[in-house]
Amino acid sequence: SAGFPAHHPHMNSFLGVPICRGEQIIGSLYLTESLHGDFTAEDEAAVLALADYAAVAIHYQRVLASDRALVHGMITAQEEERRGIAYELHDGLTQYVMASHAFLQSFLVDWQKTNSSGDSSDLQKAISLLGSAVTESRRLVNGLRSLALDELGLAGAISQITAEEKERAGWKSIEFKENLGAQRFGAHLEAAVFRIVQEALTNARKHANADRVDIDLQLVAMPASADLQLVLRVADNGCGFDPGSRRSDYSHIGLPGMAERARLVFGTLRIVSASGAGTVIEAEFSVPASPNQSHVSRSAT
Length: 301
What we know:
The chain is an alpha+beta fold and 301 residues long.
C-alpha cells in the first residue's frame, strides 16, 4: 500500500478483503462509508462469504475462457488440415485423374477412326468411370476446402451445397429456408454449422434412401435476453434408424462427429429418428447480440 492519490474522497470507514483461490489472491473487494458508522464483524463475515463466491465465479470464467481458446485452436487446426488435404488432392490426385480421362477420350477418338467396326464399350465404360472419379474428386476438394463458406457466407454456402447434393443424390425435393440473409458469424461457428449440414446431407444420401430433405436455419431472439440463438433443423423422409444402436458403428461415425462439432462451439445437438420414420437433426447455438441484429424476430419463420 502506498497511500491515496491527490483529491481522493475522504473515507470514514473502510473494509477490504482478498478474493482467494486456494493460496492465490486473484482479486480484492474494497468497501467504504458504511451506512451504520464503522464496519462490524458481521459485515466482514458477509463480505468474506461474497469473496468466496466471487473466487469461484472468477475461476470458472477463466477456465471457460481458456477452454474456448483451446477449442478455437482445435477447430482452426482442423479446418487448416482440411484445406491442406484439399490442396494436395487438387494439385495431385485430381490432376492425374483428369489427365487420364482426357487421354482416354483422345485415344477413343483415334481408335474409332481405325477400328470402326470394333467394340469400344469397355473403353467407353472406363472413360465413364474416370469421369465419375473426376466429379467425385472435385466434390471432395470442395467439401474439404469449403471456399463457398468463405466467399458466400453461411446461408450462401448451405444453399450451394444443398443444390449440389440434390443433383448428386437425385432427390425429388430439397428445401432450404433461412432468415440470415448476408448475416455473418464467427468463423468457428459458421464452420461447425456448415459441417453439420454437410454431414447430415451425406448421411441422408448414403444411408437414408430418402427422396426429400428439408433444411431450416433461423436466427431467433431469446426471450428475456439480449442474446440470439441460431437454430438448425435438417429432416429427411428416409428409412430412419435407432440412434442408440449405432453408437459403436464406425460406418455411422458422422453422428457423434456432428454432436462433437456442436459441443466444440458450445452448442447442443439432438438426433430424432426411428425405423421407417425418417431422421431429424436439431442443433442450437448461442450468438451474442450485436446492434445490426435488432431486427431478428422472436420465433423461427
